[in-house]
Specification:
The chain is 54% helix and 16% strand. The protein is an alpha+beta fold. Strands 1, 2, 3, 4, 5, 6, 7 and 8 form an 8-stranded mixed beta sheet that branches. The longest helix is centred in the first third of the chain and has 49 residues, at 2-50.
Length: 464
């Protein structure tokens, strides 16, 4: 029991730190939104004065702008075999095969949302995390590289003479992109990250996927990697490199490291959740009504943190934690549409948003059921619904219960849904007295404090 408590304490400390980081990010996002709004107004005035109409996603011809990405993963692939195009009698068939190869590579990049930068002779260049920033781009690029290698092997399978060979170099770091174009936007990326990836591809053996130590640290949980050696980098010393040999057996469908299984998908989505969370919290910052003093971004972050804490304590696996955290993120997002029946509106948003991030229909249905379970009065069915109901009303057993409940009073008062503060306190006594936490974890953590809150509120009530 002592060991389990130690693990819970460590998780609580980690979650508290993550919670604070999210608050800091939200403050920065709010400032950025304000600055963007001001810039937008200025831009509108300039456009009006110059009578130039610029459509979204289209730039004036010849105009170029610079965009910085703090984390992108650059891939260089050298496709060997071009010399044989002039030496072999079957050159036309070889060219057709090359076209098939490049078309398939483009399809693979699109599948993993990786941006093709350009093809330079016999070198194929692409980058993950561009133009849309995301935290999963190292995993995306390595998965694409594995699939590219696998397709090349399949293309030449059974042939007496194999024409094509390929070496790949992958490195993760910051890049600068020169963005240009009118109808079709192009990104020309530069920087040390690009140079290192290119050099790694140049020293790698044929058929090998060579990655830097930076990429390795971000993907090692998912893939089997073998130490390859060191490469000197100007002004930075030696760079350690690794070869990716495939997906780890526990994350592979057949145990051979070729295709990911459901466990891989869940682990991936738990990382991807960070991107989704930032997008949804940004939406809440921009679109939640000003009168939501309780159902605000802080409350959403609190519930996301608490469902993970209770979920681990209740023994849920990664898949359960993913479903809970996603439901918690959307459970009050419906307030951007309407105050009443916001749970239903939250499910509508989830159904629109989550398919873009690879959530299955079954996962989305479970998530929507979890969201609807937070409707008052709570009547949860399964363990997921019980956990989110306890997390949603976690404040009832916290030391800051009264100031938090006062924000809810202020919110309801502003909509004429409650009378005086005295009326509110009486309602609180009635609600808390009839409330019980559903999970063993919440009962052990909050039930005792909840009873103390009742006594504290009783002292605040005055006779009419």
């Amino acid at each position: 029991m002592g060991k389990k408590q130690d693990e819970l304490l460590k998780r609580i400390q980690k979650l508290v730190k993550q919670n604070q980081n999210l608050f800091d990010k939200n403050e920065k996002l709010q400032k950025a939104v304000t600055e963007l709004s001001e810039q937008n107004e200025m831009m509108k005035l300039r456009l009006k004065e110059s009578k130039v109409e610029i459509k979204e996603g289209v730039q004036p011809e010849g105009e170029e702008r610079v965009k910085k990405y703090n984390m992108a993963t650059v891939l260089f692939a050298y496709i060997g075999g071009f010399k044989q195009l002039t030496e072999e009698e079957e050159s036309e068939a070889i060219i057709d095969q090359l076209d098939e190869l490049l078309i398939e590579f483009d399809r693979i990049l699109k599948k993993y949302k990786i941006h093709k930068i350009k093809t330079i002779g016999d070198t194929y260049m692409a980058a993950g995390g561009i133009p849309v920033k995301n935290i999963t781009n190292p995993i995306d690029v390595v998965m694409a590289a594995l699939e590219m290698n696998m397709f090349l092997d399949q293309l030449q399978q059974g042939r007496v003479k194999q024409f094509w060979n390929m070496s790949l170099g992958i490195h993760t770091g910051p890049v600068t992109a020169n963005v240009s174009g009118k109808k079709k936007i192009s990104y020309d990326i530069k920087g040390d990250t690009v140079n290192v990836a290119h050099r790694m591809q140049g020293i790698g053996d044929s058929g090998k996927i060579l990655i830097s130590i930076m990429t390795y640290e971000l993907i090692k949980e998912f893939f089997i990697c073998e130490y390859y050696g060191k490469m000197p980098v100007k002004y930075k010393g030696d760079l350690e490199m690794f070869v990716v040999n495939g997906i780890r057996p526990e994350f592979s469908q057949d145990g051979k490291g070729a295709l990911p299984n459901e466990l891989f998908d869940t682990k991936f989505k738990l990382i991807q959740f960070i991107d989704i969370q930032e997008l949804v919290l940004d939406k809440l910052e921009r679109e939640l009504p000003d009168f939501l003093y309780y159902h605000n971004v802080k409350h959403t972050v609190d519930v996301v943190t608490e469902v993970e804490l209770i979920g681990w304590a209740e023994g849920l696996d990664d898949d359960g934690i993913l479903l809970l955290k996603t439901a918690a993120l959307f459970h009050d997002a419906g307030h951007t549409i309407a105050y009443d029946e916001h749970e239903h509106h939250g499910t509508v948003l989830a159904r629109e948003f989550l398919p873009k991030y690879g959530y299955t229909k079954e996962q989305i249905e479970i998530i929507c059921d979890i969201i609807m379970a937070t409707s008052l009065p709570p009547k949860p069915g399964d363990i997921y619904q019980k956990i989110i109901c306890d997390a949603d009303l976690d404040y009832l057993g916290r030391s800051d219960m009264i100031p938090v409940s006062n924000t809810l009073f202020r919110e309801m008062k502003g909509q004429d849904k409650i009378g005086t503060l005295n009326d509110w306190n009486k309602l609180q006594i009635k609600f808390i007295s009839g409330h019980s936490y559903f999970t063993k974890t919440a009962r052990s953590l909050r039930e005792v404090n909840k009873q103390k809150q009742i006594e504290r509120i009783k002292k605040l009530i005055t006779d009419d």
